[in-house]
Amino acid sequence: MLFMPQNTQAQRKVPTRRISFEESLKDLPKHFSADGDLILSHVAASLSSVFPDGEDFFVRSVRHFRDQITDPELKRQVGGFIGQEAMHGREHRAFNDRLDQLGYPVKRFERLTKKGLAIRERLMSPKSNLAATAALEHFTATLAELVLSDQRTRDLFGNEEVKNLFLWHALEESEHKAVAFDVYKAVGGSERTRVITMSVLRYMFVLGMAAQVAISLLLDRDTYRRGNLRRSWRNFTLFGVNGTLNDKLNTAAA
Ligand SMILES: [Fe+2]
Ligand SMILES: [Fe+2]
Question: Nearest Cα to 253, choosing from 204, 183, 182, 210?
């Protein structure tokens, strides 16, 4: 499936909202997901751990080409995109600080993400990094659509403030979903490279996330409490493997 921006550039608003979750996350319990679910709490924590450095990478990839954009509307949207991603990075870092206090290995994952992306930037061209950003932005926008459109998915976050954090992030991902793609096209990026990048990153993202969640679970004492993991896995497969999430991931990668 080709990624077609749904809004024309002129219609798209990309506002930067000043927001802070730090204070309200101070009392977050360890297993914050719906019904104190083990796996879903670790999935949300693992996702959040890659966001801050991932967002920084997106911003650098797009900013590199800012001076080459001649369309003033797209230039304005790039400003909005950078503002939104910078705020996402800041707020997910605050969430990660709280997760770190609770014993999640998020800081290790943050460092790994940072190193991995630095290596990618050294080895690959700026246009390839922009292709990766456009592909990953398409991927996150699809996940965002799931969060925005499906009440059941939103409820899985459990804790109100965690839900608000992901909902705010999802809303803004949906607002700026085509910006990196438009910049990529404007600077002559090829569709073939973007599609190949998308297929490779899809598997890397899913495998990387699965490994992170597994490590995170292994380091959690509650994983070893009798029946806990089995009960959580049953809920997860019901929703994740057979249900809505899998459909959306397949759609995103098509
Ligand atoms: Fe973001
Ligand atoms: Fe984004």
Answer: 204
How far is Cα 200 from Cα 145, in angstroms, rounded to an integer? 22
Residue 12 CA to residue 35 CA, distance in Å, equals 38
Consecutive H or E run containing 213:
helix 191-218
CB 61 within 8 A of CB 180: yes
Residue type, 225: R
Domain ranges of the chain: 35-253
Q: Quick: pLDDT tens for 96-120.
A: 999 999 999 999 999 999 999 999 9
> In angstroms, what is the span from residue 147 Cα to ligand 2's centroid?
14
The residues, ordered by sequence, that sit 6+ positions from 67 with a Cβ below 8 Å of its Cβ are none
Closest ligand to Cα 85: 1
Rounded to the nearest angstrom, the distance between the alpha carbon of 230 and the centre of ligand 1 is: 32
Question: How far is residue 42's CA from residue 158's CA, in Å, rounded to a whole number?
Answer: 13
Tell how far the Cα of 224 is from the centroid of ligand 1, in angstroms. Answer: 34
**C-alpha of residue 140 to centroid of ligand 2, in Å:** 7
List b or e across 112-122, with b for residues whose CB sees 16 or more CB atoms inside 10 angstroms.
Answer: bbbebbeeebe
pLDDT tens-place string over residues 14-52: 888 888 888 889 999 999 999 999 999 999 999 999 999
Is there a contact between 197 and 135 (Cβ–Cβ < 8 Å)? yes
